[in-house]
Amino acid sequence: MNKRLIVLLLVLVGVWAIAIYVLFFYQKSPVTGVTAQPREQVLQPLIRRLTDSDIERFRKNVEAPKPIMDVFEPYLLKVDKEQLVRQALSQVEPLSKYKFKGYFVSENENFVMFSNGILKPVGSTLEDRYLIIHAVSFAAIVVDLLTGNLLVVK
């Protein structure tokens, strides 16, 4: 073999030896600054102790019968009468065919009066298309039975 080739191989072996030493062994001495000491304070687990009243309340919630919903049964639209306010009704599309004149409340039925002289009870239909569902002091709320939209007669 040639002298140059032998020197080149020795240099390459030296470079690889230095590279392996730096990668694996250089500054890998154990750190002695922190020693493991037993902890004096032990953190309490973040579990709340349940009282008898809490357990009783949970038991009542679990044992309460859950209604089973039948997806083939028609859905009943329930409107909370107390939450129908002027601002909410002002955002509902008006029904311009009729004008609201007032409503009458009795023990048995509620009647809605319209400007055309029409007097209809709540729950009846206008033109077999609009179902009257509720009346307030300034408007009547109807449902369009063809489209399902809520409308207001003012």
> How large a portion of the residues is in β-strands, by DSSP E?
15-25%
Largest sheet: 4 strands, antiparallel
Low-confidence regions: none
What characteristic shape results from the CA principal axes? elongated
Q: Return Rg in Å.
A: 41 Å
Strand order of the largest sheet: 4-5-6-7
Count of helical segments? Answer: 3
Alpha-beta content class: alpha+beta
- Secondary-structure element series: HHHEEEEEEE
- What percent of the residues sit in helical stretches (DSSP H or I)? 25-40%
Task: Please give the alpha-carbon distance between the first and last residues.
Answer: 110 Å
What's the total count of β strands?
A: 7
Mean pLDDT: 80
Descriptive terms for the model:
154 residues; alpha+beta; transmembrane; transmembrane helix; membrane
Task: Provide an overview of this structure.
With 154 residues, the protein is of the alpha+beta class. It has a domain at 84-153. The protein is 25% helix and 20% strand. The protein has 3 helices and 7 strands. The protein has helices at 3-24, 52-63, 86-90; strands at residues 100-105, 110-114, 119-121, 125-126, 130-135, 140-144, 150-153. The strands form 2 sheets. A 4-stranded antiparallel beta sheet has the order 4-5-6-7, with no helix packed on it. β5 (130-135) and β6 (140-144) form a beta hairpin. The longest helix has 22 residues, at 3-24. It starts with a helix and ends with a strand.
